[in-house]
Specification:
alpha+beta, 37 helices
């Protein structure tokens, strides 16, 4: 069987105690070396300071593995229990050759069934109940002869230890009683035990835990302080940090049920569904790509949205199960139920040339069987694909009975059945929501657009009445500079030089795109502008463009009037290349433009002078003159100009590299030339679409308005696009089921037809009985899994939820409830919780509330010296565990601290910044253009996930690749994680956001006040005196450094063009707090849930 890399196998979760070294060896681009090193050193000092305090109180981090667990303390010698003491030894050392698999069974001996083990074999029995000395088992496991001892040395199962032999002897002496495997017996009915410390009991969970602690003389830990509790709850239930004001309110809340009220508030939060959907999506092996080396993109986000809503609405887990396994088979299946069935369409699709569709269809079905077994049964079904399971009672025939449930889908290594889903539809909210501020801004801009269209209509009507014999006088713009010999520079590497006739010429050899940005040095009124593009022998093929054929592509001609972008109303030209009309230079689309080449290649037309005239909707009054300079980059505003102190003209070349206007002159006129009225008339369809309320516009009208807004107002281009409908892959059955055969050794090319076709059916060892029967389908399987008599599904489910809150389950091997797994530490509690889940209508929120309101959950996580010998790995739950949060939550915590988090739910995946070169070695290079606007700051769960090359943050923090099911992630602490937070562009950007937030929320604060606030935002508590002293000193040294000439450059590098921080006064002070913010989010405290 196979597991996804990055996902835990049957490996115990042990303790790692490490310092997080934040030294940045990899230097981020343009960041000052002094600041980098000092920030890293401060991070180390902060960590060491924290650990020095922790060492005195026994507080360390638990985030990985640390060797074999210590045995739990015992106060007396108890009777040997078969499941607890004997079965693990038999399973580990004996069952491989003497277990369920008859094809691999040696000497015909079977030790997993009592009757077979006690059977006289003609020279004695392997086990003689009550007489270990007469038992051949004891004789063989203690035989000094290596040719006779069991297990044989070549088996690599290892010789039994003296303790294990004594366990066997005691068990046989006590009667060699067998017990059914604990996971397969019916759920027990257990009353919570009576405990002495009743004041420590918040709910019955605590009675089960305390009873075991009291029997061993162990005291539970005290309750964590309130700041720790609210941060713990926020990270566990929502995956984001609590706001400092909410922390303060909780700390001050004196009501006896303040904690329970907080729990209810968080369970009702819309972000609860996101947090717990991410856990489920691991099990669903959710990704945004098909897998294998081609790894093409797929649209599965509607399924992700369905999961979010189902969890948020507390859909009962039995229904949650049925709809995902067989939603498409329900009578009158709704679209939601069809989308739910996409759970099993998260399998891989191989698009490589030459791949066999039937092979990969078969592999997808295998994955569906194995995933179902892991998620609902907690069994390693994949071990029975090729032969009977060597350890658990699962035959290969039973494996293919389950296989038969999934063998009749319509998909054959292909997209298969799909349904269309609109953004937000699975969330029940219609179109994907946008934040209120942007919604208000859009309404405002639509009103402005209506006004402009009305003005355009007025101008068109006036043009119709005007005489076409109007005389137009053009005045050439005379460019001037302080030094006539100095060329005019523009955005890009092109250089403009003034010519004797007043025109401008590109000199040198430009290599890319460019924007000519020039101030108009005239006074008076401007109603129209004429651009004359001029041929010149110094240009390729005489121009008038700089391209090798003399062409150009001018994507925009616009004015910037006192900082506001104004686009001409109409454009006329004496010539245009087909497909490149002059109107494309004023449509606001950087992917269109005016060009002058023609398909015939006529040099007489192409390499000659041409002109274009641009008419303004309203003449501009210019006050005074000014020189043309290159000092421009004013932000575009969107209000109509109320006067013109400064007017710039911009000529943009954004489409093709080095397709620039090579030589040109610009003329202005106070009177617009006559233009055909139909050229000026506004788009009638756009006018009509704007008259339809936004919520009721058809798709075509919505696109029409969106395009017009982007053309008229540049800021709209940076808004996240409203995504189109997606077609999500769903399950669907063939009209006639495929016959299913046992595959010999799991080979799809070798069906064992000798034993006939296999009908869909369940596992005989798992109640209730689901006999193989033709005509059964996935709906029967789903209902069997959630039948009240099936003990595995509720046990596995509650154990997995428990694991999320304590770092390990009551059964540590949560993916393996078979004989190779670990038995539960608190079996009565496990069954009691399973009964509670069923008895409360399979309500998962009820289960969550039960666990987090227990005193067991609320305990402090501080290590205790008295537990090191007794229970070093905290299996007895005498304290909470410290856990490093998952990759997505590392990002989400930084987002919430920075104040830049875009709290939108659902919709297509997004592409936040990631390092260059991620796809350098992938077969199919992905298109990853870092999002701008709100999509740049969405939660980690929305980042597009390509299986062949995931976002580096995810792989660094142990996210699996989702090739197969993952029920438990690895959890490591590595230097690379610290380096990632220190150097990743996204985290540096969020550090800038945190710094800007400090100045925004505390405009008149002292340095110390801002440092304290930063700590409260990021770590949800006050800094200690030592921590604060370190940070104050670090701030002082940063300010001293930034006061030097070299330091000024370093401070500028920290600001790095970020509008939020650039808008603040005191750049050196802001830069210092960016460095400090980066330090704080790179501490162990930030990424750890206490």
């Amino acid at each position: 069987m196979s597991f996804s890399s990055g996902c835990r196998k049957s490996v115990p979760d042990h303790l790692i105690v490490k310092l997080r070294a934040s030294v940045s060896v990899l230097r981020p681009r343009a960041l000052p070396p002094f600041t980098r090193v000092s920030s890293a050193l401060v991070a180390i000092v902060l960590v060491i300071a924290g650990w020095a305090t922790a060492a005195k109180s026994g507080h360390a981090a638990e985030s990985g593995d640390a060797g074999e667990p210590a045995e739990l303390g015992e106060t007396r010698v108890a009777a040997v229990g078969f499941n607890r003491d004997v079965r693990p030894i038999l399973s580990d050392r004996c069952f491989y050759c003497h277990g369920p698999d008859e094809k691999n069974r040696e000497a015909g001996l079977r030790l997993d069934i009592r009757e077979a083990a006690l059977e006289d074999r003609g020279g004695g029995a392997a086990i003689v109940a009550g007489d270990p000395d007469a038992s051949l088992l004891i004789e063989r496991v203690t035989d000094p002869d290596e040719s006779m001892v069991m297990p044989p040395p070549e088996s690599k199962h290892g010789r039994l230890s003296d303790e294990e032999v004594q366990t066997f002897r005691r068990w046989i002496a006590e009667g060699a009683e067998y017990e059914a495997h604990w996971a397969l017996v019916p759920l027990g009915e257990f009353d919570p035990p009576v405990v002495r410390q009743s004041d420590r009991v918040a709910n019955p969970i605590d009675q089960f835990v305390l009873a075991k602690l009291e029997s061993l003389g162990i005291e539970p830990s005290q309750e964590a302080d309130r700041a720790t509790l609210i941060r713990r709850l926020s990270l566990d239930l929502l995956g984001i940090l609590p706001d400092p004001q909410r922390v303060a309110a909780f700390e001050a809340d004196g009501r006896p049920d303040a904690y329970e009220r907080l729990v209810d508030e968080l369970l009702a939060s819309p972000y609860f569904g996101e947090r717990w959907a991410r856990h489920w999506l691991d099990q669903a092996r959710y990704a945004d790509s098909n897998g294998y080396s081609i790894d093409g993109q797929r649209a599965m986000w509607p399924y992700r949205d369905w999961v979010i809503r189902a969890i948020q609405d507390d859909m009962p887990f039995d229904r949650f199960t049925v709809e995902q396994l067989a939603g498409d088979l329900l009578p009158g299946a709704t679209k939601d139920q069809q989308v739910a069935s996409a759970f099993h369409r998260n399998t891989l699709i191989n698009q490589e040339g030459g791949s066999d569709p039937e092979q990969f269809r078969h592999e997808a079905v295998v994955d569906r069987v194995n995933t179902t077994g892991a998620v609902w049964l907690g069994l390693t079904l994949g071990c029975a694909q090729c032969h009977t399971h060597k350890f658990d009672p699962i035959s290969d025939r039973e494996y293919y009975q389950l296989f038969a449930f999934f063998n009749s889908g319509t998909d054959i290594n292909s997209v298969g059945a799909t349904v269309p889903v609109s953004p937000g539809e699975m969330l029940g909210i219609g179109p994907a929501p946008i934040d209120d501020q942007r919604a208000a801004r859009r309404t405002e801009l639509e009103g402005r657009l209506r006004e402009r269209l009305a003005e355009q209509q007025r101008v068109a009507e006036a043009a119709t009445a005007a005489s076409e014999s109007v005389e137009v006088t053009w005045t050439q713009v005379a460019w001037a500079t302080d030094d006539p010999s100095e060329p005019l520079r523009v955005d890009g590497d092109a250089v403009l030089e003034r010519q004797p006739d007043g025109s401008l010429l590109v000199v040198g050899t430009p290599s890319g795109n460019a924007t000519y940005r020039l101030r108009l040095p005239i006074s008076g009124k401007v109603a129209a502008i004429r651009l004359r593009v001029l041929a010149d022998d110094r240009l390729p093929k005489r121009g008038p463009g700089t391209a090798s054929n003399g062409n150009f592509v001018l994507t925009a001609v616009q004015l910037v009037v006192d900082g506001e972008v104004i686009r001409p109303l109409a454009a006329l030209a004496d010539h245009a290349q087909p497909g490149y009309p002059v109107a494309a230079a004023i449509d606001g689309d950087p992917k269109t433009g005016w060009a002058i080449n023609i398909e015939s290649g006529s040099k007489a037309v192409m390499n000659a002078d041409h002109e274009a005239t641009f008419v303004l909707s309203t003449p501009i009054e210019l006050a005074g003159d000014a020189d043309a300079t290159d000092d421009s980059d004013a932000a575009a505003r969107d209000s109509e100009p109320a006067g013109a102190r400064e007017v710039w003209i911009e000529l943009k070349h954004e489409l093709n590299q080095n397709y620039l206007v090579g030589r040109f002159a610009i003329d202005t006129a106070e009177q617009a030339p006559p233009v055909a009225a139909e050229t000026l008339l506004p788009d009638a369809e756009l006018v009509r679409a704007l008259g339809v309320p936004a919520g009721r516009r058809a798709a075509a009208d919505k696109k029409r308005v969106d395009d017009a807004l982007k053309a008229a107002f540049p800021e709209v281009r940076d808004w996240p696009a409203t995504p189109a409908d997606a077609r999500v892959m769903v399950m669907a059955e063939r009209d006639q089921p495929r016959p299913t055969f046992v595959s010999i050794r799991g080979d799809f090319l070798r069906p064992d037809e000798s034993i006939g076709a296999v009908s869909p059916g369940g596992l005989a060892a798992v109640a209730p009985t689901l006999e193989p029967e033709a005509g059964r389908n996935r709906l029967d399987l789903a209902e069997w899994l959630v039948d009240r008599d099936n003990p595995l599904t509720p046990r596995v489910t509650v154990n997995r939820v428990w694991m999320r809150y304590f770092g390990r389950g009551l059964v540590e091997t949560e993916e393996d409830f078979g004989t190779q797994g670990t038995p539960p530490t608190h079996p009565e509690l496990l069954d009691w919780l399973a009964r509670q889940l069923q008895g409360r209508g399979w309500s998962m929120k009820s289960l969550h509330r039960l666990i987090v309101t227990s005193s067991t959950y609320r305990q402090a996580s501080r290590h205790r010296a008295d537990l090191l010998e007794i229970d070093a790995n905290n299996r007895l739950l005498a304290r909470q565990n410290r856990l490093r949060v998952e990759a997505e939550i590392v990002r989400d915590a930084a987002l919430s601290a920075s104040g830049r988090w875009a709290a939108m739910i659902g919709g297509p995946g997004v592409q936040p910044p990631q390092p260059d070169g991620v796809y350098a070695f992938t077969q199919n290079v992905k298109s990853w253009k870092a999002d701008t606007g709100t999509n740049r700051y969405r939660r980690g769960m929305y980042t597009e996930f390509f299986r062949s090359a995931p976002h580096p943050l995810f792989t660094t923090f142990d996210t699996p690749d989702f090739q197969t099911v993952c029920t438990r992630r690895n959890r490591s602490n590595t230097p690379l994680q610290a380096l990632t937070i220190a150097n990743d562009e996204a985290f540096i950007e969020l550090a800038r956001g945190l710094a800007a937030r400090l100045f925004r929320e505390l405009p008149d604060a002292t340095v110390t006040e801002r440092l304290v606030h930063a700590f409260r935002l990021a770590v949800s508590r006050q800094p200690s005196e030592v921590e604060l002293e370190i940070l104050v000193d670090h701030h002082r040294r940063l300010i001293e450094n930034f006061a030097t000439p070299e330091g000024e450059n370093e401070a500028s590098a920290w600001l790095a063009g970020d509008p939020q921080v650039l808008s603040l006064d005191q750049p050196a002070e802001v830069a210092a707090f960016i460095s400090i913010s980066r330090t704080i989010i790179n501490t162990d405290n930030f990424i750890t849930r206490e």
